[in-house]
Fold this sequence. Notes:
Blueprint: E1 2-6, E2 9-15, E3 37-39, H1 45-51, H2 61-81, E4 86-88, H3 92-100, H4 102-111, H5 113-136, E5 141-145, H6 156-176, E6 181-184, H7 193-197, E7 203-208, H8 216-223, E8 228-232, H9 244-258, E9 263-265, H10 277-292
Parallel strand pairs: 4-5, 5-6, 6-7, 7-8, 8-9
Antiparallel strand pairs: 1-2, 2-3
Amino acid sequence: HKAYETPAGALSSAVAFNELWPFGRDIPFFHDFVAHYREHWVKTEADLECLKHVMLPPRTAGQISGMRSRLEGQMGLADRLQLPTMATIGAGLTGALCMFGAQRLCLLTVDSPALVDAYLEIEHSWNLRMMELALDWGVDIIRRNGFYESADFFSPSALERFLGERLRREVETVHQGGRPMAYTMYSGIMPMLDYLAGIGFDCVAHLDTAFDNVDLGKINAELGGEKSFWTGPSNTFHMYSKDPEVVRQSVRDVFGAFGTVGLVLGAASSVHPMMPWENTLAMLDEWRKLRDA
């Protein structure tokens, strides 16, 4: 169990504590271990009133100074390695899935949309302030986590209803700061191409290329004129293969679909230590061949 005592009351949650729970005695708001929940953080409007006292951006001079100090250390490393810096800010319905529970969130968008809206507005205000700070401090790229904001869970019209204007405002904030904005989109993308075309993200990041219903050519045709793509071999279907040629073919497929302009190659969505290292080397080697061809 964990609880925050706030001026509006107690905000609490509970999880099944066993050997698979990775956070010890803590229960963070946002994580991938949602199946452990026995009591979710947000159940009622009263919980949202409590959350307003907890989900706050840095406010005091000391909080802002401490956050900037940590960031400066990371930016110094990036400068030495000649790499850009990227801040991931905002999770929207992806975060709401953790706060409400996956099944309940989907039902609430129909049965109690005002509750979902109220949560998203709290998070949206947090996002805008954090984006402003990151831009002021010179972060090169802002990335928004849209991992579960997809047609796997919601219709395109529901995504527009709950997220459209908020996302456009966040993109506008980043663009006013002169920086590009990426959007994590892993699966469920095909029914929502028109919707995504109406959001001004500069890059669709971490799209899994290997699901049966994914048409990379159509994605590029619909979105490629305005957006770049950050994708590559699938960490689900390719990067665990015992044959590096599977990875090489995936790299060729991605280049064939998106070309060499507007493509950032990387495993979608990540490389894990238990994957054969030869596959990562094969991905990099094939990338160099095609990049320089």
